[in-house]
Specification:
The complex is a heterodimer of chains A (about 270) and B (about 400). Chain A has about 270 residues and is an alpha/beta fold. In chain A, about 30% of the residues lie in helices and about 25% in strands. Classes of the chains: A alpha/beta (about 270), B alpha+beta (about 400). At the A-B interface, helix 2 of A face helix 2 and helix 8 of B.
Chain lengths: ~270, ~400
Amino acid sequence: MTAVERDAGDGRSADPRSDPRSDPQSGSYIPENAIIRGEDVVKEYETGDTVVRALKGIDFGIGPADFVAVVGPSGSGKSTLLNLLGLLDVPTSGTVRLRDEDVATFSDARATRERKRTIGFVFQQFYLIPTLTALENVEMPRMLDRTPKRTRERARTLLERVGLGERLDHYPDELSGGQKQRVAVARALINDPAILLADEPTGNLDRATGDSILDLFDELRAEEDVAVVTVTHDDYVAAAADRVVNLVDGEVRDDEPMATDPGGGA
Amino acid sequence: MKPLRRLAVQFPTLVLARRNLSRATARTVLAVVAIVIGVVAIGAIGTGGEAFKQDQLEAYEGFGGTATVDPVFYPEEGGEPDTTFTDAEIGRMRRASGGATVLPVVEPAGSFVRSPEGDPLLTVQVRGLGDPGAFYDARAGTIPANWRRSIIVGSRVANDNDIQPGDRMAVLVNGEFERSFRVAAVLEPQGFADPLSADQTVFVPLAQFDDGEYGRAIVRVDPQVRSVDDAAAGIESEFNDRRRTVDVSTVQDQRQQFEQFFATVNQFLIGIGAISLLVAAVTIANTMLMSAIEREGEIGVFRAVGYPKRAVISLLVAEATILGIVGAAIGAPVALGIGAVVNQVLVGDPLAFTDAGLRYVGLGVGFGIVTALVAGIYPAWKAANRPPVEVLG
């Protein structure tokens, strides 16, 4: 691994010793074959008269089968990063590229298509549709596709894989928190995404179920090359990851201890 | 595949929409009720109005071949205006009409009738008529063939005053006569379309009048055989060649005028009914807005997992449209039920729906569905355009 000196005109307050973008241990590492990569990404929000800088010029990259944990205190920019990775938002400055295309150039329709093709979401609050059964919830992202048989088979397989083969026809309010979580994971996988974005995927689970989710992630990465990016407060999830993006106050801090405690700093 | 599953596969949007509606039952029911009221208002006013029109138009039955001829005079030219027809003119009318029955009518300016008991009958008209038998049928008694000395009484005059054939009544006509007549016959009821208002009239033979001047003439053809319009045109061309001296008016024309007038009134009433659909539209828009706000997280998920805006709009518009369809499906039979009651009361047959009446029910159904659909568009558009990043916490 070659350490490359940063351009003098870069204007960023980055680690002067080496380029972390080439360091596989760094949260700013950008793999060469990255599916999605961000460079010098700034995201600002206007709230009333004040402008909040949620991300202050960070680099990131997700390659196939990567397992990346995003950690940091509340307000450190974790959700903002996840939204950018999920093509739900575009940076204020800097570039986010999906397969070498700048996502800022995408129309809404294009971004929607790319989300469907590339991204699987597991939302923190699951957002299962209460009027649909577990099986239908998993089918939901593909319900408008004219491939009902294939969709149903795939949904059934996924639910069996997350251990809910016996709960196919249950409605969300008939499922426990952990079961809902697993339905949400199965739903995120129905479109065979390249990247699975999971917000606190083990947050509502006991350790055993959490482990089974992590095992599932490992399987998906090994068998289907799915990259997993997860925001987590669980140290053991972060420990299982290939690398950790430690966000503090909108910046990636490789040199600081992981700030997984929600109460610590902001 | 089970039939329901097949339906779900074909129309996933509709299935999602229907299930969403089942979530907030009370709200859904209220929105449907609003549409039902609108559809019933339009449908029931439409069918009821048509039944009323039919009831009224029945009065024109039997007068299809009838026209009246009135003199046209020009008072501004000074001198004594010619306000009457002579026997000669009546003869010309008969020839010009191509053989229609033309009866001269005397409508005396001052007249007075007493009942058999001697009470004054203030609302009763006196008319002189050539040959009532050519025109009317008797309900009681007989219309004499050679009618010179008796009178013939209209049905309402007879009913109101309990007059029978054989009774005697005093009739006074200013400057002509005052004497007592025997009632020869009571006529069948004729309705309001009769140009001579026979129901309210006591007919006196022309022989009782001296001067041979007639205030109007009445023309009749058998409408099965020939057209009253031809007869009217013949008279018009005979008399109005150089200047307009007679006014010919067919009962058919009056009927059309009545229909037009009635159509205007009915449209006005249906416009009022349509306002209730407008209110329904507001209700549905409100329902859908609330529903979209409650579900904004879910809708954000739909957008996040790759549903295009169009699909979200379709989903919410489908929900609104289902409200409209259900409302219309309930409203149409209710409107028809009300229409059947009105038909029974006015026309005597609950199923006497006219095409126009049924069209109004169809109109209500169509308006109800379209209203709901249109009301759903804005909430749907709004929900679909909400960036998912804003609603997914």
